[in-house]
Amino acid sequence: MTTAYLNGEYLPKEKARVSVDDRGFVFGDGIYEVVRVIEGSIFAWPEHARRMTHGLSEVRIPFGAPDVDGLEAVCLRLLADNDLTSGEATVYLQVTRGSAPRTHYFPPAGTQPTVYAAASRFTPSPTMRDDGIAAITFPDFRWTRCDLKTVNLMGAVLAREAAHEAGAYEAFLIRDGVLTEGAATNAFAVIDGVVRTYPLSNYILPGVSRHYALDAARDVGVRVSEVPVTQQELLAAAELFIAGTTTDVAPVVSLDGKPVGDGKPGPVTRQVQKAFLAKLYAPAAAAR
Questions:
Q1: How many domains is the chain built from?
Q2: Cβ of 178: how many Cβ atoms within 10 Å?
Q3: Backbone phi and psi for residue 216, each to the nearest 5 degrees, phi listed first
Q4: Do 151 and 116 lie in a common domain?
């Protein structure tokens, strides 16, 4: 039996029920996070909590920093209840504006947010890490607050489906002739030995793994430049890679059906990947 958390109650996941009037269901009116867990230790919890708090504040859902901080204990309880304190896991956290009669404007003051969390076993893909992935390019027609991790993911869903139909894993999103990010990851190009990625703005998610990947690059002496990559530069890049909570740093070895570089994970990507994984697994190792 899998235990989930819903509005202060721990219960069998199959018994967790949300009203059809919930604004997350009706409008996609909510914020979510996914955290990575290794040997019972949540990786980068403070960064995830800050991002969730910021997102909830920006969309004006009354669930502040103390409330989000309290979700760490919920994560740890779910890990224990589901026998996930060894090996690897993820925890999904979601807060919506709550249940109320359907109106586009906000429901009455005092409407309680709906808070849901669930933990799952996770196994990293050795193929993704070692051999790399295929990607396609796809128009970035999402709204202009991509920095908020909302549950309204239609743009990402359509992009990922296009990638899936093309036999690829990820879609690299193109807006105004430049690469913004992946549909569900942050995206990077290695050009003239420099790791390039879109700067933090309202057009990309401030990825926790993005932050650690850039730190990893700097740690091993690789230059980093937060300057947009044009579509022409993207198609000619020596190396490409992605970073995300469940992808870690993964090489991209083909784009739109054509090899990236020599079609194998490149040396700069390997350096960044190795340093990133060291950061990812260090906290759990230190806790032993």
A1: 2
A2: 18
A3: -60, -40
A4: no
* pLDDT tens for each residue of 143-154: 999 999 999 999
Cα torsion for 26, 28, 31, 32, to the nearest 10°?
100
Contact (CB, 8 A) for 107 and 114: no
18-42 exposure pattern, b = at least 16 Cβ within 10 A, e = fewer? beeebbbbbbebbbbbbbbbbbebb
CA distances from 128 to 65, 222, 279, 282 (A): 35, 22, 19, 21
Of 86, 121, 156, the residue that ends a domain is 121
Q: What is the pLDDT of residue 64?
A: 97
User: Encoding tokens for residue 231?
Assistant: 């579509």
Helices 45-58, 208-219: inter-axial angle, 10-degree rounding: 140
In the chain, count H helices and then E strands.
8, 16
Which pLDDT does position 283 carry in this prediction? Answer: 76
Q: Which residues of the chain have pLDDT under 70?
A: 285-288
pLDDT at 191: 98
Cα separation, 255 vs 264, in Å, equals 12
CA angle 132, 134, 140 (to 5 degrees): 125
Both structure tokens of 221? 């002496």
pLDDT at 285: 67
Per-residue confidence (pLDDT) for residue 1, from 0 to 100: 84
15 is catalytic: no
pTM attached to this predicted model: 0.96
Task: Say which of 13, 15, 149, 279 is annotated catalytic.
Answer: 149
Q: What residues make up the domain containing 204?
A: 126-284
